[in-house]
Amino acid sequence: MGMSPEKTQQSLLRVKPVSLISLTDPGLALAQRLLAFLPEAEHLHRPQPFQETVRKRFLAGRRLILFCAVGIVVRTLGPVLRDKYQDPAVLVLDEHGRFVAPILSGHEGGANEWARQIAQFLNAQAVITGAQRYTQPLLVAGMGCNRGCPLALLLDLLDATLLSHGLQRRELNALASIELKRDEIGLQQLAELLKLPIVFYPAALLNEYRDRLSRSSEIVFRETGCYGVAEAAALAGAESLVERRHRAELLIPKQKNTDATLAIARIYGNSDG
Predict the structure, then answer these.
(1) Residue 142 and residue 106 in one domain
(2) What does the pLDDT read at residue 191?
(3) Kind of pairing, strands 42-45 and 18-22?
(4) d(Cα 113, Cα 82) in Å, to the nearest integer?
(5) Phi, psi at residue 174, to the nearest 5°?
(6) Of 8-12, 20-24, 204-208, 242-246, which one has max mean pLDDT?
(7) 180 near 271, Cβ under 8 Å?
(8) Do 143 and 257 lie in a common domain?
(9) pLDDT tens, residue by residue, 217-272
(10) Cα distance between residue 104 and residue 115, in whole Å
(11) Fewest Cβ atoms nearer than 10 Å: which of 27, 197, 232, 261?
(12) Are 180 and 248 part of one and the same domain?
């Protein structure tokens, strides 16, 4: 069972802050590039004293991304390690951005999944060395529509989008939209046809995803109270499918026809099999 919208919103507030720490000029450039993906992260370049600065942030519970050799990280954090349930996630990247390695709290702290997300953003390789849990991609289609939009138009948009991206209906796990559309017959019929659950989120929660939208629309905000229905609903719906906090990604940004919009988000979750 997925988390309720209220629990999803609470988990959004519990995400630990991030510190990026670089030591070389190429590492500095890579960290600056990564700030586009982690705009709220702290970035420290050649902090002094190095070990004290890193340990202080680690003990404060900040997730760390270090652009340096693994040995430096091991020698720095070794004396302050506690256990996998308390230690925050730590990633190490080579200064050229080719590899992303989770060093601490791979499962419990989410470092493995975080490494995959960072690697995808940088077009790098995630190096996961721990025992892997069987995970699978979970897909949620977020949808918006004009008042009275018929099932046929919703289905046409969905099928055309899936086909153009090599996906099938059976790969979807859920549908999502804004609370404002809860009484839309077309959306209800679509969920029934596909035999999928559909979740409706309040505009306030969807606004939590504003900085992750491919495009923020003032027009949509005036009409709905949020800056993008389809993409935000897809992300919120995907993140509600897993019990532990993970970050969903937009697999397919907003598509539209005359009366509807659609986006598909992906998240990796543990299989029940």
Answers:
(1) no
(2) 94
(3) parallel
(4) 21
(5) -170, 165
(6) 20-24
(7) no
(8) yes
(9) 778 778 888 878 899 999 999 988 876 567 889 999 999 999 999 999 998 875 43
(10) 11
(11) 197
(12) yes
List of long-range contacts for 49-52, beta carbons under 8 Å, 24+ apart: 50/23, 50/76, 51/76
Instruction: Enter the tokens of residue 81.
Output: 């390690």
φ and ψ at residue 18, rounded to 5 degrees: -120, 140
3-state helix, strand, coil in the chain (%, to 5): 40, 25, 35
CB 156 within 8 A of CB 189: no
Alpha-helical segments (H) within the chain: 5-13, 25-34, 50-59, 70-77, 111-122, 151-164, 185-194, 203-206, 218-224, 229-239
CB burial of 8-24 (b: ≥16 within 10 Å; e: otherwise) equals bbebeeeeeebbbbbbe
Q: What is the residue range of 162's domain?
A: 135-270
Which structure tokens are listed for 189? 């019929």
